[in-house]
Write a structure and sequence with these properties.
single chain; about 375 residues; alpha+beta; outer membrane lipoprotein receptor (LolB), chain A; eleven-stranded antiparallel sheet; two-stranded parallel ribbon; 8 helices; elongated
């Protein structure tokens, strides 16, 4: 009795198919039906019975039937398809599908527009921290490792730990308080006690360093991009080691201040920065190599007003064959006050969806 609803549904489907029996069926629709019947594991006998009522409008080739057999079509279905091969032998082949339109990237903005946008972005970046309110938030870091990382590959990452920190931003300064590591309380300990790979600077210092006059960054047009469905100007930049403020510390024993380059994504229209990437040019012989950092910004509401704040950051690096990757999310932004409390009961929320992290091509 418990199988009755499924059986009735299938019978209704077959009955509906019978009503269309006198209609011509294109080769594409025929194959779509067969593939669907395989995926749904419909009874071979009833699929074959439906195919016996079909009139196909173009030639069906033996190789196509072999493909359906390879996908799992049953023997009765294959026999019915072979009869259609005979019936359509004198018909013309189906017209090939027109090729998908080739993507042609829009032309870059004029030199004058690029100059104007970069000037606006520079002013915004240099004054960014002055626009921020005092706030607190949760910083959730998921750290992964690859013990045999191969340069130039995607890596095979194994989760290592999950760190929850309280981040306070007050009077233009950041303060980090470790809360838990893998649900083990860390109250009273500083982030320096956590060990492993840690990054800082998402709240303005990295933006300021890229755009301040002292770093003398070179900017050039790179491409149009789309982030979170918003069209973006994408500029590439480079900062020499002699002008850099980017610091890399290895086990508190070795430090380097390398030059670096990357991309700046600027949302067209609002002209705010939505992504910054950083790739330090590490000196030969330094233990840490191949550092890739990405920071994504989005508008967040705090006390009824919207502010552009970090939403996601990723830092990936390699030390010999040891690969390290930190994925950082910023959650539960709230206005800062001396008595402000923050709950930590939502750190198990699912990660930010991948489609919000990836760049999409500009649609033609």
């Amino acid at each position: 009795m418990r199988y009755w609803p499924i059986r009735v549904f299938f019978c209704v489907c077959v009955a509906a198919g019978a009503l269309l029996a006198q209609q011509a069926l294109s080769l594409d629709k025929l194959l779509e039906f067969v593939k669907s019947s395989i995926a749904q594991k419909l009874p071979d006998k009833e699929v074959a019975a439906y195919l016996a009522t079909v009139r196909v409008t173009s030639k069906l080739e033996d190789r196509v039937v072999e493909d359906m057999q390879g996908l799992g079509a049953g023997p009765k279905t294959i026999a019915a398809l072979n009869r259609l091969v005979e019936q359509t032998a004198k018909l013309a082949m189906a017209a090939p599908k027109p090729p998908a339109p080739k993507y042609i990237e829009p032309p870059p903005p004029s030199a004058a527009e690029q100059k104007r946008v970069l000037a606006e972005v520079r002013e915004y970046a240099l004054n960014y921290t002055k626009t921020l309110p005092d706030f607190i938030c949760l910083q959730l870091t998921r750290r992964s490792v690859d013990m045999r990382y191969e340069p130039g590959t995607l890596g095979s990452w194994t989760p290592a730990d999950r760190i929850v920190e309280k981040l306070s931003y007050f009077d233009s300064h950041e303060k980090y308080e470790a809360i838990t590591v893998n649900d083990t309380p860390m109250y009273g300990k500083t982030w320096e006690n956590l060990g492993g790979s840690i990054s800082r600077g998402e709240f303005g210092s990295l933006l300021r360093d890229v755009f301040e006059e002292g770093t003398a960054a070179d900017f050039e047009w790179d491409h149009w991009g789309t982030l979170r469905k918003k069209l973006c100007y994408v500029f590439r930049y480079r900062i020499s080691a002699s002008r850099s403020h980017y610091s890399v510390d290895f086990e508190r024993k070795q430090q380097a201040v390398p030059g670096y380059h990357g991309l700046v994504y600027v949302e067209k229209g609002s002209n705010v920065i939505t992504r910054l990437t950083i790739e330090p040019e590490m000196p030969a012989g330094f233990p840490v190599q191949e550092i890739h950092q990405q920071i994504d910004y989005d508008h967040v509401e705090i006390s009824g007003n919207k502010f552009l704040l970090p939403m996601y950051s990723q830092v990936q690096s390699r030390a010999g064959r040891f690969g390290s990757r930190n994925e950082i999310e910023f959650r539960k932004y709230q206005k800062y006050a001396a008595d402000t409390s923050i709950k930590f009961d939502d750190v198990e929320e699912p990660p930010i969806p991948e489609d919000q992290k990836k760049e999409q091509p500009v649609k033609p």
